[in-house]
Specification:
The protein has three domains: about 120 residues, no CATH class; about 70 residues; about 50 residues, no CATH class. About 25% of the residues are buried. Helix 1 links the parallel strand 1 and strand 2. It is built from eight helices and eight strands. The protein is of the alpha/beta class and about 260 residues long.
């Protein structure tokens, strides 16, 4: 078994794929360098980042796959599921080894995995686009903290750029400790260090706009008033709004007077 280490980026993974072909490695295990435990008896190759190598692999895939399937590869990579790098590598080998399209060859285990995982990431992307709630700080910046299972920030950026083009905002992923900052014209990737007192950025009441708490309370009261107990369908509600998203939804927090 040949272990190939890469830097954790999508381009770095493409470089690992390039090296697997270039060095003619037969049986490989592609591992993010931050997750590598090390082993005295393991053969390790370090895939260096090279834009020419990543571009060459991507262009080869562009000749064989539809735009949808190319995007599915990226979605799967962002899933961060253990071992997904190797499922994707085997998928790439299957694609490049066949003249005919294999995009719907669901008899192949890796084609099936890529299709299913991409769908899971797509679902979480759209839930994040629906469930993100911004709060306003005293300096007029809107911020939101999320904790997605998959690394969906790169996938939701364009949605929020278009929807909130006239506002400055930050969406922070507390699990991965980075965020997107839109300054009114461009979006940048940022790292934010929160003090413990702010609970990872979820509780920034000290820097709220003075009217923010008032409007949050109005929104919570509206949600509770339209949520008629007699018409409650908990199962359906959880399908559309899973419980793990509730902690970042204003309308799901206890009201000031009572829950």
């Amino acid at each position: 078994m040949q272990t190939i280490l890469y830097d954790g980026t999508f381009e770095g993974w493409l470089c690992a794929v390039f090296d697997a072909y270039d060095y003619r490695f037969d049986d490989v295990d592609i591992v993010r360098c931050t997750r590598f435990g090390g082993n005295l008896f393991e053969r390790v190759h370090d895939a260096r980042m090279d834009a020419r190598h990543s571009a060459r692999v991507w262009k080869g895939l562009q000749r064989k796959l539809s735009a949808e399937s190319l995007h599915a590869i990226y979605q799967c990579f962002l899933s961060e599921i253990d071992g997904i790098e190797n499922s994707l590598y085997r998928y790439v080998r299957h694609v490049l080894a066949n003249d005919a399209s294999v995009e719907e060859d669901f008899s192949n285990a890796d084609v099936l995995i890529v299709t299913q995982v991409a769908r899971k990431v797509w679902r979480e992307q759209h839930r994040m686009e629906a469930f993100v709630r911004f709060q306003k700080t005293a300096d007029g910046l809107f911020y939101s903290v999320i904790d997605p299972e998959h690394d969906v920030l790169p996938l939701i950026a364009k949605h929020f750029e278009a929807r909130y083009a006239d506002q400055r905002w930050v969406i922070y992923d507390s699990r991965r400790r980075y965020g997107l900052h839109y300054d009114g014209s461009e979006t940048h990737t940022v790292e934010i260090r929160f003090a413990e007192a702010t609970a990872g950025g979820r509780d920034l009441a000290a820097v709220y706009d003075p009217e923010e708490a008032f409007y949050q309370e109005l929104w919570k009261q509206y949600f509770h008033s339209v949520n008629i107990p007699a018409r409650k369908n908990t199962k359906l509600h959880l399908q559309h709004m899973p419980r793990r998203y509730w902690k970042y939804l204003v309308e799901k927090q206890p009201r000031g007077d009572r829950d």
